[in-house]
Amino acid sequence: MSFGQRVDLALADKVLKVAVERTAGTAEAKRALAVEAFPAFEDARTRAAAIKDHVIAHLGHYLEMFEANAIAAGAQVHWAQTADEAATIVVDLCRKAGAKSVARSKSMLGEEIGLPHALAEAGIERVETDLAEHIIQLAGERPSHIVWPAMHKTREQVSALFRAKHRDPHVEETIAAMAESARRHLRAEMLGADVGISGANFLIADTGSICTVTNEGNAELSVVPPRVHIVTAGIEKIVPSLPHAIHMLRMLARSATGAALTQYTTFYTGPKREGDRDGPEEMHIVLVDNGRSAMAADAALKEMLRCIRCGACMNHCVVFRQVGGHAYGGTYPGPMGAVLTPALDGLSANRDLAHACTMNGRCQEVCPVKIPLPTLLRGWREKSWREGLEPVSMRQGLGLWRQAVLRPRLYRMASGATVRAMRLLARQGWIARLPFAGAWTKYRDMPAPEGGTFMAQYAKGRRR
Amino acid sequence: MTARDAILGKLRAPVPLDLAAQAAALVAGSERPPETAGSPVERFAARLAGPSVSATLDRIDDASGLPDAVRRYLAHHALPATLYLPPDSRLTSLDWRGFRIDEAVAADQMTALAVAKAGVAESGSLVFETDASAPMLPNFLTLHHIVVLATADLVETIEDISVDLAEHRAHYWVTGVSGTTDIEGQYVRGAHGPRYLHVVMVG
Ligand code: SF4
Question: Any idea what DSSP says for residue B36?
Fold first, then answer.
């Protein structure tokens, strides 16, 4: 399915828009309050960007430092160049551990490397422990947001799903009762897993620690009881030391949910120690490149490696709020997804994403690490044009337009005629259907132009 | 060539001699949220009571009053006097007569007690580390989590926590109860872990 077709589906889905608005709207309001209560937030963003840039410039050095310290702490470190390599390493580790079931704590990198699919193919049962991922798993769908993967589902849909799939489902029709139903259902499965798999929000180079943050506490419940803990992390997750992580954590929580800190922030350094009462015997860390080293070397993309996956850019994106996350097609939706997906999955199949942007700049304003997302998107547009990926109709259309603007008199005549024609089509100031722009007016009305073209009004103003 | 060498090969860059100093400079004077009014204890208490932590607080003069404080809490919530205690002599040495004390945590354990290593006024966080006297799982499993914190262990900001990550398998901060906003963005307490967090400050 093409991007256009997915957008068509999304726009026709009235329930989807309601669901996306409920969560993204709440997140936007909460972030605004959190930032208001932190007057130095702007400087803190500049600092966060500088920390990430420093790490990206010295990524190789910090990765080696991390690896040495993680090994010294008793962890085993694995490296994967591609998504497939990473998934294979994880599946092999699960097999070696004789795992029948794994408890998995939500990580976008796991989605990126296709872990759910790889585990299914290997016949290993996967227990998703994050509530949203659990919903998605029951529904057989993909995440539609990086912080709220089930954002596209309404409470009514979740209720129906739980009633159909939970052993002992909720009676009362409330969200609290639904969450309780999931708690009952998941607990035994979670505690009985042979392997726990998590991502990492940060990798701490000078101690070899990994850091996870969750609101539910599901990461801890997933990775503490099993005998083996496997971490999958993108190589850009490195920070030099704990103080750097602390700064980033302050930014992450406020940008994602508006909290001062996420409820559970945990640093793991190696497996269980001598005398420890719980914890895994083995800890494996899979460091995943999957295109990141190439991004680090690409001046037009390297700023994207600053991303800490907070989701603020999509919560504040007018396009995302209309179409939700699935329309973007890749693992990562919204503005950051529109930049990342072509880098991860190739430009030619994803060139449309860069066009699904109004360039209003909201994403860049809220991004805690100041990624110039509109600029990066424009970079993809230019690249797509240079590489001849834009369709013939677009090239010819722009060619015609160029011919016209180079002839001002002709251009003025044509635009004047257009304005007059549009007024004829309007009913009470709105145009419901426009010739040659049927796709555009399918979901919206165009306001009828008032007072003629800009040039006509300008001329009138000068005469006055 | 191994995947490791291939990845690191693409990332080779000269390492300046003062890299560590550069890294340290990046966090010198990190921005922090402004301090609200009051003493650290008052600020910590206000944070605990706020909506994102939503914990309750009790204060006692010395540790011998802990069993009574726990009794009060359990009675208030109409809970049985059954308790998981970690093998921490600061707790096990107290007089727990009248309680059923569990030494292993059950999957449906109702209440667990734990000692925090520190509390953070900035965020209302409680800091824990794993070791032979401090397992981790109970603090994530039970519905009610009761945490003992010595007032002297309260620090101002997150940076003030004294920590060497290399020393323990896990170092973690609890800043509220287990919650979720995964269904329609609406906040629900008690997702997988504790629905209630109760702090008893000693001293
Ligand atoms: S691009 Fe910025 S705002 Fe978007 S998820 Fe990444 S860090 Fe957050």
Answer: P
Contact yes or no for B192 and A129 at CB 8 A: yes
**A130 contact residues in B (CB cutoff 8 A):** 182
Say if residue A464's pLDDT is above 70. Answer: no
| Confidence at A410, pLDDT banded by 50, 70, 90 | confident
What is the least distance, in Å, from the CA of A428 to any CA of chain B? 37
Torsion sign across C-alpha atoms A402, A403, A406, A408: negative
- How does pLDDT run across A90-126, given as a tens digit for each residue? 999 999 999 999 999 999 999 999 999 999 999 999 9
Mean pLDDT of A162-190: 91
**What digits encode the pLDDT tens for the residues A319-343?**
999 999 999 988 999 999 999 999 9
Q: Taking CA atoms, what residue in B is nearest to A234? A: B7
Q: Hey, are the CB atoms on A63 and B8 less than 8 Å from each other?
A: yes
Structure tokens at A320: 């995302």
Instruction: Kindly list the residues from chain B whose CB atom is less than 8 angstroms away from the CB atom of residue A39.
Output: 34
pLDDT score, position A162: 95
Question: Can you list the residues of chain B whose pLDDT is less than 50?
Answer: none
Chain A hits for B115, CB-CB cut-off 8 Å, are none
CB pairs under 8 A between A and B: 272
Q: Which domains does chain A have, with CATH numbers?
A: 3-293 (3.40.50.10420), 411-459 (no CATH)
Q: 3-state secondary structure string, chain A?
A: CCHHHHHHHHHHCHHHHHHHHHHHHHHHHHHHHHHHCCCCHHHHHHHHHHHHHHHHHCHHHHHHHHHHHHHHCCCEEEEECCHHHHHHHHHHHHHHCCCCEEEECCCHHHHHCCHHHHHHHCCCEEEECCHHHHHHHHHCCCCCCCCCCCCCCCHHHHHHHHHHHCCCCCCCCCHHHHHHHHHHHHHHHHHCCCEEEECCCEEECCCCEEEEEECCCHHHHHHCCCCEEEEEEEHHHEECCHHHHHHHHHHHHHHHCCCCCCCEEEEECCCCCCCCCCCCCEEEEEEECCCHHHHHCCCCCHHHHHCCCCCHHHHCCHHHHHHCCHHHCCCCCHHHHHHHHHHHHCCHHHHHHHHCCCCCCHHHHHCCCCCCHHHHHHHHHHHHHHCCCCCHHHHHHHHHHHHHHCCHHHHHHHHHHHHHHHHHHCECCEECCCCCCHHHHHCCCEECCCCCCHHHHHHHHHHC
Q: Is A147 in the pocket of ligand 1 (CB under 6 A)?
A: no
| pLDDT band, residue A440 (cuts 50/70/90) | low
Interchain contact A88–B (C-beta under 8 A): no
Q: Which of A79, A244, A297 sits opposite B4 (nearest CB)?
A: A79
The answer on pLDDT for A381 being more than 80 is yes
pLDDT in tens, B149-168: 999 999 999 999 999 999 99
Determine the distance in angstroms separating the CA of A325 from the nearest CA of chain B, rounded to an integer: 15
On chain A, the residues whose CB falls within 8 A of the CB of B182 are: 130-132, 135, 148-150, 179
The whole-angstrom distance between B151's CA and the closest CA on chain A is: 21
Chain B residue closest in CA terms to A146: B182
Q: CA-CA distances (angstroms) from residue A311 to A147, A194, A290?
A: 6, 31, 21
Q: Which residue has the higher pLDDT, B93 or A386?
A: B93
Q: Is A307 in the pocket of ligand 1 (CB under 6 A)?
A: yes
Q: Which amino acid is at A464?
A: R
Atom of ligand 1 nearest to the CA of A304: 1
CATH topology of domain B41-202: Rossmann fold (3.40.50)
